[in-house]
Amino acid sequence: MRSKIFFLLIIMPFFCFAQKIKENHSTQILKCSTCHSCDVPTKENPCIKPCPREKIISIDQLPEEGPNVLTIDKFKKQTDVYEPVIFSHRLHAEMSGMGGGCKMCHHYNPPGRVIGCSDCHELTRKREDVSKPDLKGAYHRQCIDCHRLWSGKVECLNCHQLKNSKTKTDISTIVKKNGKRIHPQIITPAIVKFDTPKAAGKLVTFYHLEHTDLFSIDCSKCHKNESCSKCHAKDLVTLKAGKTLEQKHLICSNCHNTKQACSYCHLNTVKPGFNHKERTGFDIDKYHGKLKCVRCHTTKEKFTGLRGDCSSCHGIWTHENFRHKITGIALDENHSSLECTDCHQEKNYANPTCSNCHEDKSFPKFFPGNFIKKR
Amino acid sequence: MAAQTRRDFFKTSALLGTAISGISNKQIKAQSKNILSENRMGVLVDTTACIGCRKCEWACKTAHNLPTLPVEEYDDRTVFKKMRRPDDKALTVVNEYQNSTKFPINVKVQCMHCDQPACVSACIVGAFTKKENSSVIWDTNKCIGCRYCMVACPFQIPAFEYEEALKPDIKKCDFCFDLTKKGKIPACVEICPVEAITYGRREDLIKAAREKIKNYPTRYVNHIYGEYEVGGTSWMYISSKDFLQLAFPKLGRDPAPGVSEAIQHGIFAYFVPPIALYALLGGVMWLNKNRKKTESETEI
Amino acid sequence: MENFRSAPIEKKFFTPIVLLLIVLAINGMIFLLGRFLFGIGAVTNLDNQYPWGIWIGIDVAAGVALAAGGFTTAALGHIMYKEQYHAIIRPALLTAMLGYTFVAISVMIDLGRYYYIWHPLIMWNGTSVLFEVGMCVMIYLFVLYIEFLPIVTERFIGRVSFPGFLKKLNRPVDKLLRVLDRTLDKTMFIFIIAGVVLSCLHQSSLGTLMVIAGPKIHPLWQTPILPLLFLLSAISVGLPMVIFESLITSRSFGLKPEINILSNLGNMVGPLLFIYLAFKIGDMVIRKTFVYLTELNSASVLFTLEIMIGIIIPLRMFLSRQVVNSPLGLFTAAFFVIVGVLMNRINYFLVAYTPPYQFQTYFPSFGEISVTVGFIAIEILLFRKMVMIFPIVSLPETGSQKTKYFIRGKSQ
Q1: Mean pLDDT of chain C
Q2: How far B142 CA sits from the closest chain A CA (Å)?
Q3: Given this model, what pLDDT does residue C55 score?
Q4: Which chains touch A (3 or more CB pairs under 8 A)?
Q5: DSSP type of residue B181
Q6: Which CATH number fits domain A53-180: 1.10.240.10, 3.40.50.720, 3.90.10.10, 1.10.3720.10?
Q7: Cβ atoms of B201 and B39 closer than 8 Å
Q8: CB-CB under 8 Å, B215 with A53
Q9: What are the two backbone dihedrals, phi and then psi, of residue B265, each rounded to the nearest 5 degrees?
Q10: What ipTM, to 2 d.p.?
Q11: pLDDT digits over B40-56, tens only?
Q12: Which of A335, B234, C275, C371 would be a feasible disulfide site paired with B113, CB 3.0-4.6 Å?
């Protein structure tokens, strides 16, 4: 939680002042000690700590804000084997939106302009500071992890074109082609059915839409640090096979008790969707059906602790704050002056009773007013 | 009998003594101490970054004029099926070890360029030398092909051209001494796409490695292989797995030639023990002979 | 005491066994030719993991140990001046000379560049144990040849007769031999002492040879006192080797064994073996390596066998008066010691050596074994030929020809 607040704190000024402030970070809401190891850094001795990575990342752009295509030709002088690599920046930015965002690659970016790889990583391999990889190493390390996961390949020719190859494509064609490439929008599935190896209860039905729409759980709550391989792995089965039981249940166990209540998810048949009445005894279909959970369960991601009576949300109802015709019955003059509890003696205001005043009448044979069409 | 006089004995002994002491002076000069410069270079191999592309193998062969396949052929990953070792035809090889999570681990193998090299100590003709910039190189013109360096090397690195009948040579990684002495960097380091092998001052590399291990405790095991092994090596490794599982030999901190040299210098401490033994035996012999002589004389 | 005198043995050279040895020798030489034509890899099973095989382990290491008779008898006969042993010095010297010659040849064929064998003479590396062993063996070989020279002069002085046009050389050569004989007579003591010192040095350093291999050598053998153990074992195998040879020579040429001398020698072996055993066991106890004996593998079994066969059994035998006084008993006991030391050298250089990356364990190829066997066969043949040419084996005195050689203790 703290890190999130911290993150927000860093982001906010960036949005507000990014345009105005020139490379002067001393006014930022940043602790000096995050970057500097001494109390009074000077220009001569800035005593900068080695790249603290996660701690100083304040970059959050939309994919379309960044460049569409980058041509990586910084190594022209060093190598004559390969053509420059055309990097479809926008495509990758869009893809990263489903995972960790810009910071997946821009892993160091103090408030200010967007920092590119070559701003920190040196072009020459023979250098004084060996604590971070040189530019060539940095590029490759950045790309190869995802590429390797989803294609299983590390061969150079996957990204590079040999310079003296006869079959090579013209650079401008690649640039043009990549400029148009964007990642197709990802459609949230409604239901995902998992076929698990568990003997008793093979089937786990996951209502994805319920979790996102109804329960209002953030995507990032479950989809954190995800790379392309989540969807594009060459061999999803082996990727999963390598996981421990605990790792497999990790996402669910954020909220569910996966250690004991197995049969809650693992069933032999498709599990029906969420039903408030069945789970809690409180039928929401009548009046609350269209509400999002958070309307009543106001604490985020906490769905327990509400009593089943109206007063937990609505307070005590009177004629002033409750228009009875919403129930489909507009009270007549006689009844509209009564206290609610005169007729509704149960806490959830169900089953009104007439016997307090009338000996010969009962609901729903008789109405305390006009029956109108329910809204 | 030809009288063996006392004078004769001392004369010849003295002559021999001077001859040997002359030898011993030269001997001491011949032993050049390893020069370990503060600024000696090293390489840090981050096995978690290595992707097993084997470009280093290609670069190494190219730099050393060894026959090699075209660079594209090195994408073939079937070679990882069996463990390989550097030999006379490949001075460095990359091996692959299966790993339970994510990627297999690739480990580049070559000469470690020890700070206290066993080969330098062992070589009968002193063909091996430890250079100031860390390279352990050898003079092929001196080599007689005895293969004692191979016996001595704790990492089993020097390889021999067994198929060569006329002038077989010892082959091993020379840390691209021809390049480094010109201020360039080794061929394998130059080509590595992910810079899994970082070339720099050994001290800086250790510092950087410690920092990495501290920052990513789940990514690395807390061990820099080569920092202390056999007295320290120029090539050092960090890894996500215990090094013994990656076929690194389990070695102590004592320099490999330590015990052997201690014994050797004990026996030959300025040639005192051998000369003392010589004198002692001479004395015994002389006494015994004299006794025999007087005995036989008295008998007569 | 019977009067013995060294003289050439006059017997037929060829016997069935000699023919067999010749076949073995030729077989070995064929493979040796293969080594020179096609390289070491073509004939041996050596690889980058196992750089040294039986050519070093048996031919060189065991060869040097088993040639220890030369310096032990020299120490006994000349330095201790025990005259009764002079009779066995010459056979021991010949064995040592032949042994070391073949050690040198074996080293040479095992060298990748045999034609550079002289390199260590001018390219020195004081820290190298191999350098020290090499130098000592080279000098000692030279010393052995010098020690042998008086036997040559004795044989040829007054008998130089070159055929044909070389005839006119007869006189100068004879003169040269006489000068040589006189000079050697005066200076021989230098070489004898040097021989003993050099032997002590390289016999012990042979043990230091594999110390640098560190953890590659099984801890049962790898100890800092290896040089001492090697020296002790060399000393204790020297006399059994002399006994063994002497008995074989007697048998082969149908001579009466010099059982008195041999028994006396045998009595000395017991204590020497005991000291060796004490150090070996003591080292094991101090370093607590006996735990490795509980594992059942080739190392533990061979180590146990090496101690049982090589030390404990012969120790018991040499302490028995009955055994020491019978030729058969002496022969068996001596044989056990020899086998034990041979095993020790093989164990130390080959069995105990486990490289960090084994792809296949080393076992000598047919070619390697052929060459080794061939060399041993040639050695035996040469020994047989030499004792027929030179006055080496002591025979009962028949004539009264004066011996010329000072070492023989000629003043009697």
Answers
A1: 86
A2: 33
A3: 93
A4: B
A5: T
A6: 3.90.10.10
A7: yes
A8: yes
A9: -70, -25
A10: 0.87
A11: 899 999 999 998 889 89
A12: B234
